[in-house]
Amino acid sequence: MAHTETQRHGERLAVFAATAPGLEPLAAAELRALGIQAAPEPGGVAWSGTAEELYTANLWLRTASRVTVGAAEFRARTFFELERHARKIPWERWVSKGRAVRLRVTSRKSKLYHEGAIAERVLDAIERRVGSLAGAEVAADDEGDEDASDAQLFVVRFVRDACIVRADSSGALLHLRGYRQAVARAPLRETLAAAALLGSRWPGDAPLLDPMCGSGTIPIEAALMARGIAPGLAAADREPRRFAFQEWPDTDLDAWKRVVERARNAIRPAAPAPILGSDRDAGAIEAASANAERAGVLGDLALTVAPVSAIEPPAGRGWMVSNPPYGVRVGETDALRNLYAALGHTARERAPGWTLALLSAEARLDAQVGVPFADAFQTRNGGIPVHLAVGTV
Asked: Do residues 243 and 281 touch, judged by C-beta distance below 8 A?
């Protein structure tokens, strides 16, 4: 694909990496480690960056859901104004004739409140610039957006008559690394598992144990971090997952290849410390092993079938990070008190001095553990408000 003049001359893009609420500081810290200075904002982090930084963010961000690029900002109180501005947007930068397009439109406190009518005008503006499209649809919100649709997504937001249009560069949501096909009950998103590890301040070279690992998301994300594997390369062959920007007419494919090659060269051959996962459900451990094999990190993990009371942490100091059951249904909390108490008892007996970090929805259950906790962050998991409780055993 041809490179555009603007990209050759180092054009700055208005980039925004969306996160779950509460994870913005973690994503900003990730970007700083990548040499990208970004400012946390409600719902994500923003920065002015190059195309290569955009590719890097998609490949490397562990806690972000999606990375978008600013296409236009304008005010419109009539459909005539919307049409005039929309037709000036260089849509051909992000979508070519014959591609499919998805729109996600929201309008709050604006004269133009009919989201379907807004979408109709924007789609017309796109076709006027790029030609006929293979298809067009108006998408729901990101909560249900789990597919790897080939359509190019544009996000159109009206707030108080101000319109912001953004082009999605990620495609499928970034938590879809590709390795998790086998799932246990109540699967944890990969982005939140990574956030729990980062929020616990696990250094990557100390022992780590998840005593209720389910389908293995926390241990697998830990192994990826410990080995310096970009989440976009979480496959046994270390081929990157697909991103929407790869289909853009003006993508610098040579720069993308450089980003991927640098990431492959950064991978360490093995995790420097033990990473353990256990669960009393044999089916969960079977799923965890299959997922770890797809991610290319099975050899870095020790996965065993065991109840919490039978865990055997490695000697010395380490981290215990887990996503225990929350008990959100009526009557479940009482049944879980014993589980949390058993976790605390076992940790004090076998892992003194360890850091304990739990993704939890209930402070009263945290209290059963008997460890003084502080919240590292608050967010949502599957619509449930949760926090990461971190303490020293």
From this structure: no
